[in-house]
Amino acid sequence: MIVSLGAVSAARPRPIDLLPADQPVKPRPPARRWRYSPGVRLLGFLAGLIVATIVVVGVGRVPAIAQAAAQHWWLVRLTEMIVAAAAYLVLLWVEQRRPVELSVRRIGGLGWGLLLGAGLCALVIGVLFAVGSYRVVGVNPSYPIVPALISTGLVAAVAEELIFRGVLLRLVEDSLGTWAAVGVGALAFGLAHLSNQDATLWGALAIALEAGVLFSALYVVTRSLWWCMGLHFAWNVLQGPVFGSAVSGSGTASGLLRAEFSGPEWLTGGVFGIEASVLSVVLLTALGGWLLWLVHRDGVTVAPRWVRRRRLLAEVSSAPAGQAD
């Protein structure tokens, strides 16, 4: 299955350091070990984040730009993506590597991710429609679709995937291994949504279980942010701007379709949106669990740092004298 996703070479750990292709190569004997430390790399990303934020805020004080931002609120959201992308470039410089997870040659994963996200959202809405809990009562031709696509779709997909999968998951995985990285990444992703207007503890837990696990598992399988961004974009855009559900407790429930949800909150998700529906939790978590099973079956998990070190030392000590150098 991983081969069919076109990711086997990127996902399988390298013999030299037992890490996948989206991690900087750590040769034996170690060279510039400090530079490849997860802590140093995290500091590099945070430094880039701070500098980029300062620059963006400074540019935003230019009168013409400030006026444009006041008239078009989505421009402010767009700066979040720019800041995250700039900080990620700083991280890549610290790591001294090419971003295999964003390789142009693997951009086809974006399309597959879009199809997957659209299919999952349509399936959840379809079930709600079938049981009478979702009904379209009209259309909303004046709905601001372009700002919604940018804010709910593009910015959320790019910025959040760069931060949670491109940075957090990779750095935790380098230190604690794949399983801990998936758990930490999923939990952090859920907790990050507690700041939304209509956030609930169940909603945050639901996102951690469904989206946090699924997005993390998909990244581990493919080692491609294209897949994750495509899935994230389509899932957000269809549930909100298209089908009219609230997105992650954002406080707004409107879209191109004017829709009504009825029934128990455990089924519809209530004011948080369909991400808090048991249907979404079961479907997406099950898919994420299946992907993680594939990861385990195909042996592409990354072991914790101390386990990798022990295995590499064992290889060196057991190698013939002429090959140990």
Provide a quick synopsis of the model.
InterPro entries: Rce1/LyrA-like_dom. This protein is mainly alpha-helical. The chain has 12 helices and 2 strands, in the order H-H-H-H-H-E-H-H-H-H-E-H-H-H.
Describe this structure in words.
By secondary structure, the chain is mainly alpha-helical. The chain has one domain. Helix content is 63%, strand content 3%. The protein has 12 helices and 2 strands. A two-stranded antiparallel ribbon has the order 1-2. α5 packs parallel to α9 and α8 packs parallel to α11. The longest helix is centred in the middle third of the chain and has 32 residues. It is globular, with a radius of gyration of 21 Å. The two termini are 37 Å apart. The model has no long low-confidence stretch (mean pLDDT 89).
List the helices and strands and how they pair.
Blueprint: H1 8-11, H2 38-60, H3 63-71, H4 74-95, H5 108-130, E1 134-139, H6 145-176, H7 178-192, H8 201-222, H9 225-242, E2 257-261, H10 265-268, H11 278-297, H12 305-318
Antiparallel strand pairs: 1-2
